[in-house]
Amino acid sequence: MTKIMAGRMTHRYDGELVVFHIGMQINRWWRPDLWWPAFAAMPRMLKELSLDADSGLLGYQLLFGSGGPYVVQYWSSVEKLYAYASNPAQEHRPAWAAFNRAARRVPGAVGIWHETYLVERAESVFVSTKPMGLPKATELVPVGRNHERAHARFADGKTRPATAAAVR
After folding, report:
1. 17-118 has which CATH code?
2. Contact between residue 38 and residue 95 where contact means Cβ atoms under 8 Å apart
3. What is the rounded distance in angstroms from the CA atom of residue 66 to the CA atom of residue 113?
4. CA dist., res. 138 & res. 75, Å (int)
5. What number of other Cβ atoms are within 10 A of residue 104's Cβ?
6. Using one digit for the tens of pLDDT, what is the confidence trace for 16-60?
């Protein structure tokens, strides 16, 4: 069982930060033959990325929304995200090609969506939670005296340099 973080915690990170949301919209639940291959591809991609320290993936959070599963990913650069997405020797390109073939065969059965955000500044606070989100992907640090309020953390969101390895 993951330990609950005591106290008020936030994150610290210096450098480019990309937040990438990607998910599935399962429109025909009764057709797992159409959505299961795309569903099963994501864990393989996340494992591949997590095992490669140079991939650019800082961390991720698996979630479940109203239409299906999605993942919030944290990346060190847009270039590394796009390099992974376009590399035919890695898991993403073959999975994307297979999804497109299935989508042409049975249009509308399953959808894929993503959003990419290049983050200039970010604010976070986590009180009595398990490690997740930005602190898990970057560096977990206690909220300092001058950063008790969200406004102060946001104003200083990129000026605190990282001093230790990320907590994962």
Report:
1. 3.30.70.100
2. yes
3. 13
4. 10
5. 8
6. 999 999 999 999 999 999 999 999 999 999 999 999 999 999 999
Task: With residue 81 as reference, give the H or E element that holds it.
Answer: helix 78-86
Q: Are 33 and 61 in contact (CB under 8 A)?
A: no
Rounded to the nearest angstrom, the gap between the alpha carbon of residue 146 and the centroid of all alpha carbons in its chain is 29
C-alpha distances (whole Å) from 90 to each of 22, 38, 44, 113 are 17, 15, 10, 20
For the chain, the domains span: 17-118
Note whether 47 and 40 are within 8 A (CB).
Answer: no
CA separation for the pair 17, 158 (Å, rounded): 10
Residue 94 · residue 119 · CB < 8 Å: no
